[in-house]
């Protein structure tokens, strides 16, 4: 766990020039191809959901897009999609965990998760089901009420098929989450529908997900949390699933499979990182830097700690 005194950390943050000006955050999640970037770009067409240079030279994987709807201001976090052949689910979970820890340490308010599913997908696969379970493990029972399950890509050409697939989501695959308090809704690729979803979410009370509690309050490494344990268990099954593609027993591109099988081999090591200690130490180092104060916003500092990008101009580099 962190060797930084929490009161000292809070005092340092409170003395930052724009402390208290962090607008609420909403995570935008879903499978690769679910329409996350399309959703965000509908609300912020000028952002291009583009990762700019952060405060740190490290690689950015997610993007924060500050938007304004009427008098409401909110930060949307475009997270990497699950089921990516380039990255393991455990690796993506690590990114999300770093973001949640950084937000908690900075006093940022999390209002919920917008979780999209593309209605053009021909079927609800086993990986889709697994990622719903991952979502539940991240949120916990107390956090499900801050989840918005969104059926996307209604302009895919066949509304009758969309209606059938949406009904299947509502009555079968998403039923338990909806019964536990999640909100089911549609994104019709329009500004109005995206705005309505974000407004409903931002008006929710702030939430602390179980993953945050397990890491920050219980002192667990990510591998010992429920979400981390589930991701590692899934990783052990994934090579067998991918080899089914190589054998011609399941759909997929064989050219990508050999590479994908190797992805995640070091997940056990990655998930043993002490995220809290790493975040707190870097937080204090950055925020005490004389070159940082007055030129970097607190949001930029938080996103640097989380290792993700900020989709606005003027991000400074080299700290």
TrEMBL record:
Signal peptide: none annotated. The keyword Zinc-finger does not apply. Keywords: Membrane, Transmembrane, Transmembrane helix. GO terms for molecular function: GTP binding; GTPase activity. The chain crosses the membrane at residues 294-317. Pfam families: RsgA_GTPase. Residues 26-86 form the EngC GTPase domain. This is EngC GTPase domain-containing protein.
